[in-house]
Amino acid sequence: MTTMTTSTDPTSADPAATGSGHPPARTRRWLRGAVWLSGRQERTALLVAGGVLSAVCAWMLFLGLQISSFVEAHHLQHCNIVYFPPECNATSVSTVVQRLDQSWQQSVQTTGWILLALPPALGLFLGAPLLARELETGTHRLAWTQSISRRRWLAARLGVPLAVTLAGSTVLAVVSTWWVHVVEGRFAVPGYYHWFTWLTRTTTGPAAVGFCLLGVALGAAVGLLVRRVVASMAVTAALTLVLRLLVDNLRFVLLPAKRAAVGIHVAAAPTDPHVVLFGGQINTGVPLESYNLGNGFLTGSGLRIPLSSDSIDTLRDGTTVCSDNPCLAHHGEIVQAYSDYQPPGAEWPMLWTETGLCLALAAALVAFCFLWIRRVR
Amino acid sequence: MSHQIPVPADDAPALEATGLGLKYRRGWALRDCDFRLPAGRICGLVGPNGAGKSTLMALAAGLLPPGAGSVRVFGGAPGSPQTRGRVAFLGQDKPLYPRLTVAETLRAGRELNPGWDQEAAERIVRQGDLPMSARVAGLTGGQRTRVALALALGKRPDLLMLDEPLSDVDPVSRQELTGALLGEAVENGTTVLISSHVLAELDGVCDYVLVLGGGRVRLAGDVDELLASHRLVVGAHEGDGPVPALAGHQVVELRRTSRQATALIRPAEGDGIPPGEDGWGIGDGWDVLRPTLEELLLCYLRSPQAPALLTPCARPTPEAALR
Amino acid sequence: MAASVVEYLIDRHSGLSPYLQIVEQTKRALRLGVLRPGDQLPTAREVVEATAINPNTVLKAYRELEREGLVDSRRGVGTFVRRSLAKPGTIADSALHTELAAWVRRARAAGLDREDAAALITTALDSVFSEPATGASGPDVDHDDTTSTTSTTSTTSTAGTADEEPG
């Protein structure tokens, strides 16, 4: 065993050589701490999401401008293919409208599907892996043994993607609102006939923002519970579908409906069926482009007798014929026919209601994450 | 450079557990654990697989809530704002963000820790010839360990807990990393709790040991005190009957061949060294040897039925139980 | 601050505690004159980084050396050699060494192997050092900087290394 050797340690002798000279001024002040880390972790996902979003917006602008210039060039502004107003009934106009439909129908339909799929896709690919990947690979333990609290970490972890989603989906909302306005009622695409059809209503205006934020929050919450990336994505997909249907149906219920009513005479079915005119319709004077929520009869005492459809059978004198038991039981007392509906003007209040629902759900999910994080091991 | 280990201002022990327990679905991972680790020590945490070593560290790191009793880190609750910045924990799986580069990983440490020491962290990385621009996902196990260790040391903790830290590191880096680790520790007065299966690795490194077995504390305390209060005796003995020469001593482990018996003994009562000093009053014809740390630990690991032993400095203070 | 001149080599399997190894190696360096008064011992950090032994062991060894009056610990500066243990005649090239080397050669020629020779020396050491000391002083030898073990960092340039130096 020898004792003596020379000992000159270059690293201890020269602190400048260790290269700790990071210019702190270069650090952008708003990107610090856990926020920086969260942004760095989600950088790829956010860039991909941003790219997809930009592409979709560019596509909508491109297609929308083409369609609207065609519409203007051929003066088709008022030609709705569902109602076909009289001035559009000329053969020449009809041919042009058909050309419009033939040229772009497929693209419009595809675009509609993409718009519909964007918020769930965000939930699946941005939301679900957000916390699930940390828990699956154990990196949450790395973060939680640094000097910051779990909740501050979670705030950054959720805050960064949610903020970016908010910004991105706002852009999307603006472009898609314009887009829906361009294509609505012009194409034989189911879902784009009216303002209240499903493609239109879930991709217009603030609803796009609401569904995108809900998607991310839902994915994150599911990831926190399920702790596995792939499983979280599957559960998120299923729950997104359920929530969408739920919110979609709730929005018509949450906003008070309007009721239109007309006086009516009702009689029991006559013994001779040949005197009955089948296939009439209740006409309660509901405005055009309204969303019908239900029809029926009202008795003098205010009793409501709903009908399964708005088609009725009448006698030649206009008397309505009862066709089911509830009606027969009360036919002597019925004084009015009614329709419950949402007028076209309800579109934006409804969109806001729907968005509110989405945001409330998203907020509840985020709150759940903050409560649950304390119990995670 | 100071040669006095700077002990943190408050003299609370680095770790103190009273009645500490945690139950998983399959049973108790840790039960009725009482021990104390004074600040400034380098403590080896030893035990067979499933003894509760990782659980103990996770509890002290605030990653798990205790199921029973309590554990205190410098007098505070693990994971509380006062202790978060003072404790660094490197888990067995050494989690790192795979998509970050080495430099970004260190930046993460800087962003998340107010007391970050970039120079110390970079020193560890550079000694391993690791390019700062390398992606963590592309590193070997040993390189990943180095980055994880750099992250833990850059935090400048007062208590550094390492769970099987060097299991996938080559022998040269192992020696160098242990040296670097201890160098940082001596500079900052860091208390180190390090678990390892390689007992020889702990010899000379640790001045304190904590042995767990079956979720309970088997042995805890100052290495010198523990070595002084045990003797390895070897002598001729035939048959399976009791060994008369060992009467009056607590036998930790007794192994026999047909003609010979080897035993690790300690005083029957208390922890004092018996008056006989070196001979310990064992009869003639017996070799009485001081055990090495490795021998001592092996004997305790091999004989789970031996009663637990805590040296005075390893016993929690009565006040700790009241907190 | 002077650069440290010694480096400790710790043998974990020698049976000697690392603490004693540091004390012994320091004393040997003092005896051989490699460490001289005013020299700085490596910092605890340097020792620990190089040897991966417990820092408290190093500090304990330094405290022991300080207790024996061999070194001075100056807070925040380092540990410095206070007095030398070097005695004239203990240097490797001394007359005693020459005599002993001659004896070893004879022993080898007589067919003794290394262990046999070492055992003989140990026996002789045991018997001689158990007698009371006779107060003999060391023989007068010339003081040469060249030691067979190593060189110091800073100023010493030895004949053996001079032509290897660049420039």
Automatic annotation (TrEMBL), chain A:
Domain of life: Bacteria
Protein keywords: Membrane, Transmembrane, Transmembrane helix
Composition bias, Low complexity: 1-18
Segments passing through the bilayer: 45-67, 113-132, 153-179, 199-222, 229-247, 351-373
UniProt-annotated stretches for the region Disordered: 1-26
Organism: Kitasatospora kazusensis
Listed name of the protein: ABC-2 family transporter
From TrEMBL, chain B:
Record domain ABC transporter: where: 15-239
Highest rank taxon of the organism: Bacteria
A Pfam family reported for this protein in Swiss-Prot or TrEMBL: ABC_tran
Gene3D superfamilies: P-loop containing nucleotide triphosphate hydrolases
SMART domains assigned: AAA
Keywords from the named record: ATP-binding, Nucleotide-binding
GO molecular function, one term: ATP binding
Protein name per its UniProtKB record: ABC transporter ATP-binding protein
Biological classification of the source: Bacteria, Bacillati, Actinomycetota, Actinomycetes, Kitasatosporales
TrEMBL record, chain C:
PROSITE patterns according to UniProt: HTH_GNTR
InterPro entries: Tscrpt_reg_HTH_GntR, WH-like_DNA-bd_sf, WH_DNA-bd_sf
Regions of compositional bias (Low complexity) in chain numbering: 147-158
Record SMART domains: HTH_GNTR
UniProt keyword terms in alphabetical order: DNA-binding, Transcription, Transcription regulation
Pfam families: GntR
Annotated region described as Disordered, given as residue ranges: 128-167
Signal peptide feature range: none
Segments forming domain HTH gntR-type: 16-84
Name the UniProt record assigns to this protein: GntR family transcriptional regulator
